[in-house]
Amino acid sequence: MALILKRQLNEGEKAQVLKQHGSKCFATGHMIPDGEEIQFDHIHAYAIGGASEIDNIAPMCAKHNKEKGVLPLQDFRVKLRLGDFFSSGDKLTLKHLLEYLRTKGDIAEYAQAVAVHQSVDSVTIESASRKYGQTLYECPITQWKYFYATLDVDVLDSDDEQDDSIGLQPRYLIFDKVFELYRHFQQHPVLQPSIGRIVGNRIRLFDGQHKIAALLWNGRKVFECKIYLAPTIRLLNQTNIDAHDKFAQTRFFSSIMVLKLGSQFGGDFDNYKKLDDGKSKSEANFLEYLVRQDGTTQTKAQINTKFRNFIYNSVLSSQDNKASRFVTSGNRSTDEKPLTIDVLTKSLFSGFLYREPTTDNMVTEAYKREEEINNMVAIMNMVHDLALGEWDGNAGANDERQRRLNRIFRSKSMMAWSELLRDAVCGKLDLQDAEERAQPLYRHLSEQELQRIQDVIKRLVNWKMWNSPDDEIDRILSDNKSEVKEWFKKKNLTTGYLMGAPE
């Protein structure tokens, strides 16, 4: 008969558990050092029906016992492994997970090559492991051929960017979403297949990667899929983007739109520059060219949005941009990465980048987009060198330097001081008319002019109120941008001060 325990173990019961398990944390198997607290936890959580029997009690370190909460032990172990996987980067896709699981021995292989044998109404997919014979269907709108199949993980890959082709995978994996789906699929079925296409001799999935990821963590090795054989890539890409953005329950992170769509747009831009159509090459003509290329599948407004994302991505992906390491790929800042792309687009980027397509001929000296991007990178590097580079996500709440940086890089704070910074930079560069002020960085800047900008930024980050002992500033910085700007003005953070006037 099982020994029924009280909610609090006595010393004899604790000794009995330790004799059975040793001084090892049952979550991971690591030794609990001498002198460290040993806690005793329900393997199957008491709060969700786990029995208070000695066979359901195990030792744990205090850290893991707290983190486990009411999770079943197996779920907690998966959560720890997920944390290990996501610690390897912040722009991870299904391909990265497949490689991680292969390295850890959870799967034998993935992305195995396949041969495709197509007839009028059927298709055979053959790999080194097995053969799949499926019925072919045809889309009544596009006439694309596709099939449904339950495919082994051995033949699946993620539709990421490759050296030889564009990738259609529009998202990065999100920790919380993978874990929530992992738990959901323990009790619920998968209602829709994942979607992919044949690329060369590979099956690449571009929709449903979170479902595949969650099922992989549940030990699943076969997956229901819908696979297109020879779709028109531009139309499929735009359809997929719309499905993940306009029509999705979970909209794109703004960062995904910038990083992914900006990169795809850049490929079109490069192809356009090589086009010999007898017309002058300009950004405005390029956007008109895309409208003609895509017909009614994209509006001019959608293409303009992609154009802006392309400019933002060019700044963020620059190898010279020191501040990029502090920019998260998610929609919320983290302890390690305080800047979001959404905030950057509403602060520094909106203030300094000219976000409309120019009519300047790209082969003439009048075209300054590359210099503008380099100038924006230079400003971000100044912000990095003078302040952001000191960011320490592990600093305590009472760390004076980190408190100052938190105030500078709060979202409403950045949106407010970026406008002041732009006006001060325009003043330092002696930009007078409206057109010049709308394009403050769309020009060659001399070393002397860059130094003037750096002096302005130095004034900004050294403003005495960032170090105020009064917590009024923290309350104000949580308010809307107009309230923050008004408070800055009262405390003499003005364009004049940034340009050198005394406080």
Biggest sheet strand order reads 6-7-11-9-10-8
Shape: flat
| Cα-based radius of gyration, to the nearest Å | 28 Å
**How many helices in DSSP terms?**
20
Give the distance, in angstroms, between the N- and C-terminal Cα atoms.
80 Å
> How confident overall, as mean pLDDT?
86
Question: What's the short version?
Answer:
This protein is α/β, with parallel strands linked by helices. It is built from 20 helices and 13 strands.
How would you describe what is shown here?
The protein is an alpha/beta fold and 503 residues long. The chain has 3 domains: 11-70, no CATH class; 90-244, Conserved hypothetical protein from pyrococcus furiosus pfu- 392566-001, ParB domain (Alpha-Beta Complex); 315-498, no CATH class. It contains 20 helices and 13 strands. A hairpin with a 4-residue loop joins strand 4 and strand 5. Mean pLDDT is 86; it is low at 1-6 and 247-258.
Describe the SSE topology.
Elements: H1 11-21, E1 38-42, E2 57-61, H2 62-68, H3 73-86, H4 94-103, E3 115-118, E4 122-126, E5 131-135, E6 137-138, E7 145-152, E8 156-158, H5 175-184, E9 194-199, E10 202-207, H6 209-217, E11 222-228, H7 233-244, H8 254-273, H9 283-294, H10 300-316, E12 327-328, E13 339-340, H11 341-346, H12 348-352, H13 369-386, H14 400-408, H15 411-428, H16 434-438, H17 447-461, H18 472-476, H19 481-490, H20 495-498
Parallel strand pairs: 8-10, 9-11, 12-13
Antiparallel strand pairs: 1-2, 3-4, 4-5, 6-7, 7-11, 9-10
Helix pairs in contact: 5-6, 8-10, 9-10, 10-13, 13-17, 15-17, 15-19
